[in-house]
Amino acid sequence: MSSHNPDRLSHAIQAGLALPPGGRVALVAPLLDAPLPPVDPARLAIVQPLKPDHDIWRDRGMNVATALDGSYAATIVTLPRARDLAQDRIARAEAATPGGLVVVDGAKTDGIEAMVKALRARLADALHGPVSKAHGKVVWFEAAGALADWILPEMSPNAEGDMTAPGIFSADGADPGSRALAEALPARLPDRVADLGAGWGWLSREILSRGVTELHLVEADLRALDCARANVDDPRARFHWADATAWQPDAPLEAVVMNPPFHAGRKGDPDIGKAFIAAAARMLGPRGQLWLVANQHLPYEPALTAAFRDVSETGGDTKFKILHAARPHSDRRGRSTPGTG
């Protein structure tokens, strides 16, 4: 999703979009810099399953939920890039807004033009707009049940039999980076381990097969974590809905294994992986170890050297590198706010 919101909604209101004068208004996954619609903030309900954004909205004093809950007078959907997730969110918005207004706000880079065509094919003249501004569009319609077949199961098995959800990372199967990391892990891992950015749990199962006694799955996307709960049926697993860069165990860990994200929307952002590395160092004990996989071009070695005494590349191929680090520097270890998920 685009990280900058040019306030297309206000432009659409000036062009004829009329929000209802009463009732709850849901904002589904709004951007953090999105201006709020011109209604009483007490009427607004933010729907956000991503933990960092969820907590930011909460700290701003907004009503926040992880999913649509009950009925609304209007629902405003910020279009996600994944087409299946986009259709599902719009259809769920329609179902939660009977007889009310559904608004879709999206950037061209996130597929709004194709979505407008798909909505026009279903709704014909009942679709209003589009109002275009700043490389995006806003459309709206009255909810009448026309999109019910767009609603997808909250989770369903992929071709490999694992439960995944629309729009989560690598939903069709284990991604090649995680497979490469699993192949490079030792046959026996230390006892207490965390999988940072655990996703829907494929790599976590591989970690559990290597003799650990306790594994913490830390994942910011609640939908992915719910899938992990279904895919990782093991009493040694602990599940935490948390920002991996802020989560801290109750006691230092012996190892961290991770395939950190490196995109913010469509843009590559190596700082995300660097933040994961710093977080891993904080949560490990003096002899703790880190295994991670990264694309070859990502410059993680300086961050690893700054945080750990021992750093080496232990495997990889033309696309991926497997990095191992051990013994975090004492000034990098420490406790932040404990999170038990």
UniProtKB/TrEMBL annotation:
The keyword Transferase applies. Keywords: Methyltransferase, S-adenosyl-L-methionine, Transferase. The keyword Cytoplasm does not apply. One of its GO terms (molecular function) is S-adenosylmethionine-dependent methyltransferase activity. One of its GO terms (biological process) is methylation. Pfam families: MTS. This is 16S rRNA (Guanine1207-N2)-methyltransferase.
